[in-house]
Specification:
The complex is a heterodimer of chains A (about 160) and B (about 625). By secondary structure, chain A is α/β, with parallel strands linked by helices. In chain A, about 40% of the residues lie in helices and about 15% in strands. The radius of gyration of chain A is 15 Å and the shape is globular. Classes of the chains: A alpha/beta (about 160), B alpha+beta (about 625).
Chain lengths: ~160, ~625
């Protein structure tokens, strides 16, 4: 994890084991260099918008992909999602919900709020690793993001 | 009780019959008597006239003879000289030719005429006197009395009497001395004008009486016939009257019995019945009103407004409206019901079930209103009790529902946290065991690697258990979305879903006609999937799996089954088949966590159906389930 470089993936995850497994899976694919891990919704919102919600974002382009858990301390993932998608500065950032919940209401609510993808974390390590690796590859390498003015810093490696 | 109608009572003889018969008899008898008496009078008048005629004839002869101072006739044997006239000069004379003549005085002439020509002459006259010339002319007792009566100035004596047992009319008139008489009777000392004696006539009445009798018999016969005719008419009239009377009595009896029946029916009801006429008066109130209201029927009859007064003041407007409704109802539906409270004489409150109906005569004329009141206090109290219990029950249901909703929410929250939080550690266990294997494999021996494998496998199994449990618990909170479902389609879809399981196996599948039934298609698809996957699973050891899917309508239910030729089961464990996490086989023999059939049972039960199974060890099993399908009944 390199803190100085532009963040490509924002991982919002309160469970350190899950976070470690996720990071390991990304690492195996060489996608873990520009990952920023925050442990709850408040931290996530602070990171994206700065400490005050009214202020301009701390970073004009906070991340290329956000991996969002739903069940989080202080502010849950749904609220984070709602805020991201309600703000036009951030609503184009792909948000992949990565959660243990198979609950239909959660799935429906996430898509209603504008989640780009909804992944249930597999219990099996192999499946989990494969899922994380695939979604990282897809959103970071295959997916074409819209151009933003001005583009923040140098482009991430492709 | 049904008593046979007694025969109508025999009508008595009308009271007027006997007096009329008596009157008629008296009348006819009077007529008869009057007629007979009249006839007798006539007969007597005739007799008297005849007697007088005879008398006058005698008198004429006598007067004629007297006027001539006697008459000379030839003396012969028949007519000898009258010795009683010996004192009379020239009693016997001779004609110049020498024929001897003797004088006949009136008495002598008459005597001779009567004696010699009595047949022609008829009735015998009789001349008599108290001083006689001829002793044979002496008066009998009756004549003596008559002669004595003449001396008192009576001119005529009549009497119907008997002579020697025969009926006679006797007539006697005084014989007054005249100049002509003196020739013979002066010797006796009579002066002209003296009553010298009497001349009598005795008329035999036998022929007249006989005639009178025969005429009386005729009259009697005629009147007798008239009398009988009258009696016959009377008898006819009386018979007619008796029949009329009997008819009237029968009709009265029928009316009385009918009245009695209706009164018994009306009086012996527990309900309080009444009939109110259009003018507001009450024409009938059943005695039962007293039991209900405490007021006797008499008081209602005296004051019909009591009907309104007994009603609880709060309910009176209802009753007034009820009456208006009744009046406004269509003619053929003019009856109405309501319930109201009354206050009895003692002030007790009672509930009355009231029904009333407009009364119409057969010609459609309104005859007021017929009311029926029943004491429904007990029912009302029971209803109130029921309402109270219902309210309590509803409150309890509401409380329980709130509790249930709370519990459901808690369960959902619990499911959520189970789903989310229980999986996370499992993922960690599995993940880190794998990482250990990946990163530290060279340092682990075979046993170490086997142990790590066990950890991984069990973690995965627990994950599946959690998933199944969640699915199972979620079943209760989801509402059923029922629609008419083709089970043929559901079974096909289930088989498609199980395509992966089926691949590479030899399966003989037979699908029969499955009746459609109303159910939640998503849940029933789960049932079919679970049953078919079970069948596939337990036929695994068979070289050729034989699976039969079937169904039929049985009464109000649609029944479906899945039959296989798999390993089967022992029927003594049949009750364990559908329990959650209950298994008859180890995971090593057949994989699974023991939720599939429990899920089937839960889904079917929620639809109001049943599940059951038949099987024998090693001889296959058949799983049945039924769903209510009343419309499928033929």
């Amino acid at each position: 994890m390199t803190t100085g470089a532009p963040v490509e993936i924002l991982l919002v995850e309160d469970n350190p084991q899950d976070a470690e497994l996720t990071l390991r899976a990304l690492l195996k694919r060489g996608l873990a260099n520009h990952v920023r891990w925050v442990r709850d919704g408040v931290e996530a919102v602070d990171y994206i918008f700065g400490t005050s919600a009214d202020a301009a974002p701390a970073i004009s382009r906070p991340a290329k992909l956000i991996l969002l858990d739903l069940k989080l301390p202080r502010m849950d993932g749904l609220e984070v999602l709602r805020r991201l998608k309600a703000d036009k500065r951030t609503n184009s950032i792909p948000v992949v919900v990565l959660t243990s919940s198979r609950q239909e209401p959660d799935i429906e609510e996430c898509y209603r709020l504008g989640a780009n993808s909804y992944i249930v974390k597999p219990v099996e390590f192999e499946n989990f690793s494969a899922a994380v690796a695939q979604l990282g590859m897809y959103w970071l390498l295959l997916n074409q993001e819209p151009k933003l003015d001005p583009p923040p810093g140098p482009e991430s490696r492709s | 009780m049904n008593t046979a109608d007694p025969k109508p009572p025999g009508a008595p003889l009308p009271a007027w019959v006997l007096p009329v018969a008596l009157g008629w008899t008296v009348l006819v008898a009077s007529l008869l008597i009057w007629q007979i008496m009249g006839d007798r009078d006539t007969m007597r008048r005739i007799a008297r006239a005849e007697a007088r005629t005879h008398f006058n004839k005698d008198q004429a002869v006598r007067l004629w003879a007297a006027a001539h101072g006697g008459v000379y006739v030839p003396t012969d044997a028949r007519t000898p000289p009258n010795p009683h006239l010996s004192h009379v000069p020239e009693r016997d004379i001779e004609t110049p030719s020498g024929r001897k003549l003797t004088m006949m005085n009136p008495a002598y002439i008459l005597r001779q005429m009567m004696e010699e020509y009595s047949d022609v002459y008829g009735t015998h006259g009789h001349i008599t006197s108290l001083k006689l010339l001829r002793p044979e002319n002496a008066a009998d007792a009756w004549e003596t009395n008559a002669l004595k009566a003449f001396e008192t100035g009576i001119k005529e004596v009549f009497e119907f009497t008997e002579i020697r047992g025969e009926p006679y009319l006797r007539l006697m008139r005084p014989l007054v001395t005249e100049k002509g008489c003196m020739k013979c009777h002066s010797a006796q000392g009579y002066q002209v004008g003296d009553v010298r004696g009497g001349i009598g006539v005795s008329l035999p009445l036998a022929p007249l009486i006989a005639e009178h009798r025969s005429s009386s018999v005729q009259t009697a016969v005629a009147l007798g016939l008239i009398w009988l005719l009258g009696l016959a008419g009377l008898s006819g009239a009386s018979g007619l009257a008796r029949r009329r009377m009997a008819e009237r009595l029968t009709a009265e009896e029928a009316l009385r019995k009918s009245e009695y029946r209706h009164r018994i029916v009306a009086d012996f009801t527990d309900d309080w019945e009444y009939w109110r006429l259009p003018d507001g008066s009450l024409t009938y109130v059943s005695p039962s009103c007293e039991r209900l209201t405490g007021y006797p029927a008499r008081e209602f009859l005296q004051d019909p407004e009591l009907l309104m007064k007994v009603i609880h003041p709060e309910d009176r407007p209802l009753f007034v409206r009820h009456l208006a409704d009744l009046r406004d109802a269509p003619v053929d539906e003019r009856h109405a019901e309501m319930e109201f409270r009354i206050l009895t004489r003692s002030g007790e409150e009672r509930w009355i079930g009231h029904v009333c109906r407009q009364v119409f005569a057969s010609d459609g004329k309104p005859l007021g209103r017929r009311g029926s009141n029943r004491d429904i206090t007990a029912r009302k109290l029971a209803e109130a009790e029921i309402l109270k219990l219902n309210a309590e029950l509803e409150q309890r249901v509401r409380d329980r529902t709130v509790q249930l909703e709370t519990a459901n929410k808690e369960l959902e929250a619990f499911s959520y946290s189970v789903s989310h939080d229980l999986r996370a550690p499992l993922r960690a266990i599995h993940g880190f065991a794998r990482i250990l294997q990946e990163d530290y494999a060279p340092r682990l021996d075979a046993e170490g690697r086997r142990l790590l494998d066990v950890i991984s496998v069990e973690a995965v199994r627990m994950g599946r258990l959690i998933d199944e449990l969640l699915k199972f618990s979620r079943l209760n909170s989801q509402p059923l979305q029922k629609e008419m479902v083709s089970h043929q389609a559901l079974a096909s879809e289930a088989l498609e879903q199980l395509a992966a399981v089926r691949s590479g196996r030899r399966i003989e599948m037979a699908v029969g006609d499955l009746p459609a039934s109303p159910c939640d298609p998503a849940l029933l698809l789960q049932v079919w999937v679970n049953l078919l996957s079970n069948a596939l699973k337990y036929t695994g050891p068979r070289a050729v799996a034989e699976i039969v899917i079937g169904g039929r309508q049985e009464g109000d239910d649609a029944v479906y089954f899945v039959k296989d030729n798999g390993v089967g089961f022992d029927m003594k464990y049949a009750d364990k088949l559908f329990g959650v996490f209950q298994r008859l086989h180890t995971s090593a023999e057949f994989e699974g966590v023991g939720v599939g059939l429990a899920l089937v049972q839960r889904i079917v039960h929620r639809h109001g159906g049943r599940v059951w199974a038949e099987g024998r060890v090693d001889e296959g099993a058949t799983f049945y389930f039924s769903l209510p399908n009343p419309e499928g009944k033929r």
